[in-house]
Amino acid sequence: MTSSRTKGMIDATFDNRDGTIWFDGALRPWREANVHVLTHGLHYASSVFEGGRAYGGKIFALTQHSERLRASANLMGFDLPWSTAEIDAACNETLAASGLSNAYVRPVAWRGSEQMGVSAQRTKPHLAVAVWEWGAYFGPEALRKGLRLNIAKWRRPAPYTAPTKAKAAGLYMICTLSKHAAEDAGYNDALMLDWRGQVAEATGANIFFLKDGVLHTPTPDCFLDGITRRTIMALAKRRGIEVVERAIWPEELEGFSEAFLTGSAAEVTPLAEIGPWNFQVGELTLQMAQDYADLVNGRISL
Q1: In the chain, ranges of CATH 3.20.10.10 domains
Q2: CA 95/CA 17 separation, integer angstroms
Q3: Which residues pair with 52 in a beta bridge?
């Protein structure tokens, strides 16, 4: 049953909510956490972000997210004046102020409005952290039924064409286009190939496949090596399940029995279909989902 408070958050647009957002060192009222229309990050995508989840009042893998935020900014050519520990503290402060126990946590950093044009040397870096209630990314039925994916026409770029190891806002433009096209065609999401035509990832999550008891996952040489991805690899190895990172071609998908997505937002979500290929929502996928849930909620440890 949805509470009146939860319903209010769901109905509200993201600029019109009660609560506070940590902004450049202090908590501000949610509706006042604004930037100027000529902010460099808006015009030239000079922005990086993270997405984490809190479970039972504790943000899972928080320091890993904060470290990656700083690394992403560095790859984009701007250094954040906040240390990893200070970003951790900002996230925890924002979560505490929200009053939420289970929540999504979004730190975002960007170049400001001190300079306009492609050059950005005189811009000032900014940092904000927002926290909100967010349930299952693909909805409550996804774990039972599995998702349907089509094949995106857009491909992940080569690492010599973009800073692909950064969680940078501009790299998600083709993800939005691909997800919109998939949803318009009646699918939940899209599988993105890389510039070589190899399997890469979904629009916002990494991917795993099962064959003969072995998990296979694409080598992340042009897309993010996700924090949840690495966590699932560790959980699989904990159970003695072999994990192989390698190049995977689309025609190989016919030979896999199970498939699932991983990500801080997606958590572990099974797949039922990718284009012409079908998969079972099988025992191993559900076990990985349960192991991940147990880990993030403190019931097991690595």
Answers
A1: 142-296
A2: 15
A3: 105
Q: What is the DSSP letter of 76?
A: T
Calpha distance 219→203 (Å, rounded): 16
- Between 10 and 70, whose confidence is greater? 70
Q: Which residues contact 204 (CB under 8 A, 6 or more apart)?
A: 172, 175, 179, 189, 263, 265, 266
CATH fold of 4-132: D-amino Acid Aminotransferase; Chain A, domain 1 (3.30.470)
Q: How many angstroms separate the CA atoms of 189 and 152, rounded? A: 9
Region(s) of the chain under CATH 3.30.470.10: 4-132
What was the pLDDT predicted at 11?
62
Coil vs helix vs strand at 271: strand
Going from the C-alpha of 240 to that of each of 35, 280, 286, the distances in angstroms are 49, 21, 16
Active site residue 211: no
> Are 132 and 265 in contact, with CB atoms under 8 Å apart?
no
Q: What is the CATH number of domain 142-296?
A: 3.20.10.10
User: Which of the following is catalytic: 7, 58, 124, 167?
Assistant: 167
Give the predicted TM-score (pTM) of the model: 0.95
**Identity of residue 170:** G
Six-digit token pair at 156? 């992940």
Model pLDDT for residues 90-106, shown as the tens digit of each residue: 999 999 999 999 999 99
Question: Distance from first CA to last CA of the chain, Å, rounded?
Answer: 34
Q: What is the pLDDT of residues 20-70, one digit of tens each?
A: 999 999 999 999 999 999 999 999 999 999 999 999 999 999 999 999 999
